[in-house]
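Help wanted!
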Amino acid sequence: MADLKSSLKDAVRKLARQTSVDSLKKRGVKQVNVLGLDRIVSLIDEAVHRSLRHKLLSSEREAVVDATKEEFLKLLRSNEELRARQERAEEESNNLRLEMQRLQGEIDERVAEASVDLVAGYEGENAQILLQIQSLFANAKGADDPGLVAKVQELVVKLVTEQRHEVEIAQAAARDREIHNLQRRLKKLNDSLEFTEQKLDEVSRMKNVEEGVASVYRDVQGLKGGGQEVERKKELMAGLFAANMKLQKGG
Amino acid sequence: MSDETTNANDESAAGKDHGVLYIGMDLGTSRTSVSASNGVRETVYSIVGYPKDVVSRKLLKKDVLFGKEALEKRMSLKMYKPLEKGVLKYSDGDEQERMEVEKAAQDLIREAIRMAKPRKDELVYAVIGAPAQASINNKEAIIEAARATVDSVMLCSEPFAVAYGLDMLEDALVIDIGAGTTDLCRMHGTMPDEADQVTIRIAGDSVDGKLAELVEASCPGAKFSVQMIKDIKERYAYLGDPPERVKVTFPVDGRPTEFDITAEVKEACSVLVDPIVEGLRSLIASFDPEFQHKLRDRVLLAGGGSMIKGLDTAIEQAMHRDLGGGKVIRCEEPIYGGANGALKIAHDMPEEYWEQLK
Ligand SMILES: Nc1ncnc2c1ncn2[C@@H]1O[C@H](COP(=O)(O)OP(=O)(O)OP(=O)(O)O)[C@@H](O)[C@H]1O
Ligand SMILES: [Mg+2]
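Answered by r_m:
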């Protein structure tokens, strides 16, 4: 058994996760419960003993020892696995949140852009154009008919306005597409966040994180000492045990 | 992880050991209580509810609810009181119902153990005080449910647990007044057997029933529910001289109306006295004549029903009248008497017995 014990110790040690006190603090952990290596090994030991008691010839013992050991290691590993899965899920959900924040920011930007007041800008531009046409006509010969200037001005502004309108429509469509795409990505992210959190929830439920409250006793107690009172109680305990033996093991 | 068993918990830093957790449980008709060697004490109404359909399950986010919470959500639950009348209750021959009730009892036991907050790395040994008259099948179902979460478990009769907890092992009579049954148990130094126990079907529920009947008769038109009656009883129950007037309000034609039911409360509580004294008489009369007076002078009142004010004196007076004398004392903690006693038994049980029952 000594060999088994030390190899188990090694195995358990390998499975253990290293964590620094600082990183625990960062996560807000103030108390840790440490399960002693010896305690774990003795648990395994007990598991082995327990299965041995019920069975077997000595020739079969080795097989049982191995099987039990494997069983326990499997358990430990699955525990480790669970913890890893939880960490992965936590990380994933954090990343998803960050990505969602970024996307939302982008969307907000686009929306803000869309509502910038274009009209004010156009008015300045229009005035510029009108001025330019006027000076063009002023320099041209025989074109001092004010009616004609006004007509040309009107025509040009109309053309420019139409042109602008087309560009605006095209731009708005492009932006809408972009916003729409961003929103779709946001929704997908949100869905997968929900999924991840559900997984996280499942994992923590599986781990059954409830710690429990420690008993005041380290060992099995039982009646101690002598005297008439204790003897009588011992008899009562024996009677109760006998009744339970009959009930639970049929005799 | 370290090579030594270190525990950075505050308690153990102060040198507290851990490793074996004892749980004492009183599995009652109306209430299930646990008391454990980690200092935890909890009680829950023995009521189990399962969501009626998928929608309720989604809304409640739970597969099973217990006690008060189940009562509050009862509209969307299928409810069970798995220990009605002191045994797992189901009508004979209905296999489906039997299985459902058994499952409810088992879920309740698991919940009670969870309430004791056992740690995953401790050995857990439990003693369950079960109704004295539980059938073999019931007992097996109880054991099976407990085994799923504890390392070793023993059943004992409820009144025995109460007596053991108070060190009344010799020449004593225990009266445990519950909701469905009143259990009487004779203690004479050895394990009580069938002949030492009497179960009476008159208990807390009978008081409720009687009070409802009396209120119905004396408060014309008053509308009330069983629960209202029970609450009134638990607040005012008394025998002997009234400590205060019992004034309650019931709606009559929708208008809140006050009634004085002082006399009714007393009369309802009195239904317990004669049957109990009759039970005591039979247990005393069949005992060794030399020690009969000793039994008579050490009667212990326990269970929720024993909280009726003046009940000890009322029983004593009836004993003087019918049995020529008697002395009745009260258990100081009626609610936890059974659980505390079961915990003490667990503590005193020798290691090899636990081992053999694993
Ligand atoms: N203050 C009180 N005064 C009178 N009766 C009370 C009081 N508190 C509780 N009860 C009654 O005690 C009964 C429940 O007692 P207890 O909790 O000991 O029952 P139980 O152990 O669950 O039932 P059983 O022993 O029948 O299995 C109920 O009828 C309840 O109404
Ligand atoms: Mg009880």
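OP: Thanks! One thing I noticed: The pocket of magnesium ion (ligand 2) is lined by residues B 26, 28, 158, 176, 178, 303, 338 (CB under 6 Å).
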